[in-house]
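Handout, section B. The chain below has 1101 residues.
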Amino acid sequence: MLQQAVAALRRPRLGPLLVLMLHVTAMALFVHGFLLTRVHLSQRSSSPPTAAASPPTPPYDRVVWLLIDALRYDFVVADGRYRCLPGAGVCHQGHMPYLSSLAAHTGAARSFMFVADAPTTTTQRLKALATGGLPSFFDVSTSFTAGALEEDNLVDQLAGAGKRLAFLGDTTWSQLFPSQWAWSRPFPCFNVKDLHTVDDGVWEHLLPALRAPASWDGLLVAHYLGVDHCGHTHGVSSAQMAAKLRQMDDHVQQVVGALVEGAGPGGPHERTLLLVAGDHGQTLGGDHGGGSPEEVDSALVAVDIGALRASLAKEAGQSGNGQAAGSTGGGAGAPSGGARGVAFAGPAAPAPCRANCSCGVEGNQCAPDLHQMDLAPTLAAMLGVPIPFGNLGKLSPEMWQLTLRQHAGCSSADAAAAAAAEPPAAPAAWERSLADAQLANARQVHAYLNAYAATAGSPFSRATLSSLDAQFSGLDSPGGASAATAARCQQFLADAAAVAREQWTQFRDASMVAGLVLFAAVLALQAAAALWADTSGCSPTSSSSKAVQQGSKTAGAAEGPQPGRDWLGTLGRLQLLARVGRWQLPVPAFRAWLAGAALAHCLGIFSFFYLLSEGRMVCILVAAASLALALSVGRAARAAGQRLRGVVTLGVMSLRCNALMAVLGVAHHTGQGFWARLTVHEPQPVNDVERGWHGKLDTAKALTVALMAAARIDRLPPAVLLLAQHSLLCTLPILALAAATERLQRGSHRGTLQRLFTLAAFASVAAHLQVEDAIKHGLLPQEITLQQLAEQHLQPLLPAQLAAWLAAAGSAGRSALAAVPAAAGLAARLLALPLPALLPHATFALCAGLTARWLAQAASRRLRGAAAASAGAQLLLAAVLQVSDRQAPLILLLALLEVVALARLLARRAALLPAGAAGGAAGEAGALLALVAAQLFYVTGHLCEFAGLQYTAGFVGSNEFHLWRSGALMALNTFGGMVLPLLALLAVVQHMQAAAAEGPQPSAGAAQQDGWGKDGQPDAPSSRAPALAGATQPSSQGGMLRQAVATAGLVQAAAAFCATLSAGVQRRHLYAWALFAPRFSFAAVKLAIADCVLLLLSLLE
């Protein structure tokens, strides 16, 4: 039975298909038990948010909520939590002075670190803010497809209370709450390159809405997106971010002025609460989605407008009824010293840690933490509506301190004058209101947990809730003081949230174990299929293969080493047991290094520290394997009497390419900043997840500038210098990639037109990046078309005769097109498109047409083997370049050179191995290229976390977000690079096959020793290898390919299995959902893609 299963996996096309299906099944079982979604209950709260018999008038009747997307905490509060470092670009702190100064009005405002739960994507944050509930990890799948929110939420409660609600900005609000708004002005939210359209649209309607209070009441939301988009496009430490933050600060100042003007006695905004907050933070690279501190830490400033008016009036020495108070609100800078309102003692006093900036878990914050789910119950109580039924947050006592003005019986005109020399005790009415609100909060949470426990399939049990029930029963003891009741309620709510978090991290263990067991079984079968290779056709000597086959049929398993079992085949034999004791492992040194590198990568996935630096570690492992390969080939070449110069050159070439890729491309994990501060309290790393021109390629740019200065060409015009610099770092690598991949395909059966179209695709990519860089630096207008570029910028540079000839040719072409109306209309539309949109569409159209042609040739078997795989890799390379960052061409060129160097070393090794051992060398190639594929994922700037996704790839060629199109482009950007080394496997195996047929040649030159012909193609089999002539050659090459595919699949599957097992074992780790769960998610997708690519290689055989 086991032999039959292994034999099935060894079959050319059936094996990879079975592996893919079994992997998908195992992953589906594990995911079913691991990625749980929370059950959404349909119940709605109907009780008032107070335990009092007759609910009093709520403290506020209006809330103005300015939601600044991705507002980092240190944009508003500059303390020891985050610091700007020298050389990190434009410091992002200190650009919102007015917003920062509002918190100094202690009687009217409070600032908080607004802490989110992962995933930190806007849709999930808005759901949590509206419901007060906890998200699940799987919610990140709905980041771009928000549907109507079915759970009870704050917006529904306000609308049900008869409030007229309004919102401006991010269209996600209209998707989550499609019918609750009296009026709205939604704007598209996914064009991250557009920094101003949404913000300008919000600002156009915001001030008029504030000055027309009859058009709304209850809640007005203004959701700005410019800060988030600026981070994605330019990074946090950029001049664009500084300008955007100053713009937001100016908007806040004008909004405060407009509100203060209407906050006089009887005014519409006398009882208005202003909230300025972010929904999440962002890394220095502008990304978010994960659970690192930079992503979850945002800022919240809450302002009582009536109390602020009184505070400003007191500072100005005027009455709150005067006009000056209103005008001061809009133009005040940092508040001066002195009292800022009524200062109370006891529970009504601000947090003591504010005075010495010792708040937070690290004791280095000037503002205490406020969890985002605590905002929903707090706002519900402040507005006098029921708390959402599924809320798990707890009312914030410090935000409730803003209601002191109402409970102290002070109007906005005399609240500031009520301050005494010694802070008085909080009014009894205020303490009672706090206790009542927290009792209502506790009753709502208790009712929700009991309702959830009664739901079928709920992780809760009566035993789990028994301690909470006992705690709840003693909350409101008769005759107890209000402060004590509030303290007991606060403790109950904290314990209930902790229980809920723990229970919602329960898993379906049976499903997870079943998935892991199936995965382990498939992995074992893959190992058997890869290590105990099928003897049919693995050896270049067909007679030897036939002898092995005949011996297997007649005498069973051979006792000694056999030609087709060279790739670690003897590890499974009993001789190993006898040799281990004498430290005589029958494994060649290179294979031991290669197996050790693959094993180290797999085991490292279990380590928190390894995952933080996985990109660099993979580069080190590939370098170690490359060095071992070069040393092994050098030792064998010296023993065979061959020159070592070529081996040394290839080894140094592979190592240098590896090192340059690691320096230019590998991004820091967002968790590194967290770990550095947690252990040694160092500030955030400068290059934390930075990519693109504002990332590590700046080093290369600086070097280029230095070289230009040394060559005395830095005095040229800026446009010429920019063109030269971009050409050196971007255009030339693209052209080199096109030329190199074209040369490697010499001899393939491709037509001239097909080759020209392929080169045109690369040229379109290069032109697009050149135009975008020119637009970015102001050398070309934003919406320039091809016709404008030719007439206004290129034609004046040409000689007069050539310009006239081109003009005549263009006129003749237009006349010819006029005869075909459809073609003329299409040409007119294309010429009217801006170049940033036209060129990517040209690339995609060329790649799509060539791919269709490639599929037709492969299906008809006119294009097969290494030629088919190489042609497909070339088309994929052009598409990947189009959707990648500007450093990608240089990195992919280095990757190509690394693969070529490794291929030549593997070919030399295959030629130097004993006869019949080429099958084992093919397995080495599969394992090594699988590691290179993992390396290429990281050196192209990607990470196994959602903050590492390069969202700008979804907008290449378009300023709008289209789910399927943008999703496909992001997938191509993220996983396209890792596919390229796998597609190269066929060409590498063919190269090794040719070299093995030639055998050792002590007297050959360096080029011929490599088995690489003068035309860049693998040498044809010579007369000294008669076994490869005729019908036996395809069978032999097919056997080697099957060996390489099986081993590459084994290495990929082993890494994915370890990621799956790590996520299951460490599911309760502090960083489980920020590190291990995303690592598993990416590993599952990468494994599925790798299995599909290996299946394609098997079909192309």
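Note. The CA atoms of residues 65 and 533 lie 66 Å apart. Compare this with the example in section A.
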